[in-house]
Amino acid sequence: MSEIEATETGQQLASIDNIYSGKCLSVSGRSTLTYTVGRSQGDNALYLRIANSTGNGVWCKDWASAQAIEVIVAGAQDLTAKSFHCLHPGKSINTGGFVLAALRDLGLIQPGEVNTRLHEHVPGATLEGIMRNPPKAKDDGSATRSTGKSRRKAKEGA
């Protein structure tokens, strides 16, 4: 099985130009993700996709429209990886978590104050607004965890 799931039809959206690329850790912190924001030449709309992962898992490399992402995110206070599964129905469940990590890295969402496993929309943030003044790309491989120490427990007796 390939690392990347292909589209069922094999077709991609026509002419999307990459306008920003960033790197971040996955939600689990086990792999580094490369994500891309693109702009359609046809309608000038923004799109997001996960372009690469250093992990061995499967994910969907298709574009997701910023409009669909913002419908999910707008005003939300309890976002999880599962919240983004509808962007790529029937594709790998890893993709939802990868999208969540990319959106967190971009600054569209942030971990909740009470429960950091739940994410919330950053008030007033939109992908269009973020792309007007994009964050500095972390292309040198120095992706850092934005939520602090790992919550994974050490094995007992180790």
List keywords for this structure.
158 residues, disordered N terminus, 25% strand, alpha+beta, two-stranded parallel ribbon, four-stranded antiparallel beta sheet, 3 helices
Overview of this structure, please?
The strands form 3 sheets. The protein has a 4-stranded antiparallel beta sheet with strand order 2-3-4-6. The chain has helices spanning 66-73, 94-106, 127-132, and strands at 4-5, 16-25, 32-40, 46-53, 59-60, 64-65, 109-111, 119-121. The N and C termini lie far apart (34 Å). With 158 residues, the chain is an alpha+beta fold. The longest helix is centred in the middle third of the chain and has 13 residues, at 94-106. The radius of gyration is 16 Å and the shape is globular. Helices cover 17% and strands 25% of the residues. It has one domain (15-132). A hairpin with a 5-residue loop joins strand 3 and strand 4 (46-53).
